[in-house]
Amino acid sequence: MAATSIELSRRIEHVAAEYLLERYSGPGNPMGTEVLRVGAAVATKVPFVPQNDLMNSVHGLEDPAHLRDVLAFYGATQQPCSIHVPPYAPIALTDALARSGFRIERYAAVMVAEPVPRSRPSEVAVEEIARTDLGVFLDTINIGFESAAAALPVLRRNQSFWCDVPQWHLFLARVDGAPAGAGVLSVHGDIGYLAAGSVLPQFRGRGIHAALLGARVAKTKARGCKIVTGAAAWGSQSQRNQQRAGLAIAHVKSVWTNRPAPVG
Asked: Where are the domains of the chain?
């Protein structure tokens, strides 16, 4: 596809923000997520898990004048937050973040491509699930993200609406009939977003993640989307898997936090 432009980067950052709104404040808002919109920025806050940097994060912030509103939003519950800063954000914003006690915590690669389906490992079966398989899907994706067994009932309750988000497609990968991995595709206009995806520990290194990517890219194409996008920790296996699936780096963004730096 054509070289990434600032306009395209802004569009895919907006899609990522809208997906997080769907994920954390979807139908019924079971987690009681609070939302702030100021200018182009979108902030989500889940007060009962103040240290979760995904649930308590800000996307689309470019105007440093809006930082005061963001800080007041999280300050009302005395909790930290993460702010995603793409490379086109003005230096005045990063200067303001530094003055306000934020530091860069990590970097993320934002990926993009035209949706071109590719062949998938024949030993991995991937299917789009119906509501009857939602429990298996949720346990699989959460265990793949290293969630403790004791937390699974609460996660199932908080994520029970995932089959009710119209633009979402949920995929379950199986090996010899056993659940092995799970992934989400969220569609926003002509853009398909490769959202949450994980593989159970005992199945890693067997092409499960690649198979889930392939199934979601194929669905993006079937939905008539012109673009597929995703994100991953910079230099991670997930980034490499997305590159093998045909995605290229659109931009690298920094993730800033005002959590205290770890000691030692």
From this structure: 6-109+253-257, 124-225
Helices (H) and strands (E) in the chain, counts: 7, 11
Distance separating alpha carbons of residues 30 and 25, to the nearest angstrom: 7
| pLDDT digit string, tens, across residues 18-42 | 999 999 999 999 999 999 999 999 9
Residues near 241 by beta carbon (within 8 Å), at least 6 away in sequence: 209, 210, 213
Quick one: tokens of 243? 């590159």
* CATH classification (class only), 6-109+253-257: alpha beta
Contacts of 132 (CB under 8 A, 6+ apart): none
Contact, 147 vs 138, CB < 8 A? no
Q: Residue 139 to residues 10, 21, 59, 133, 241: CA-CA distances in angstroms? A: 33, 21, 28, 10, 23
Q: Check if the beta carbon of residue 212 is closer than 8 Å to that of residue 171.
A: yes
Write the CATH number of the domain with boundaries 124-225. Answer: 3.40.630.30
Name the one residue in this structure whose structure tokens are 């003055």.
Answer: 99
Single-letter amino acid code for the residue at 57: S
Band of pLDDT at residue 122, cut at 50, 70 and 90: confident
State the residue for tokens 């569609």.
Answer: 187
CA-based nearest residue to 56, from 196, 260, 257, 230: 257
Q: Residue by residue, what is the 3-state secondary structure of 233-254?
A: ECCCHHHHHHHHCCCEEEEEEE
Which residues on neighbouring strands pair with residue 52, listed in sequence order? none
Q: Is 58 helix (H, G, I), strand (E, B) or coil?
A: strand
pTM: 0.93
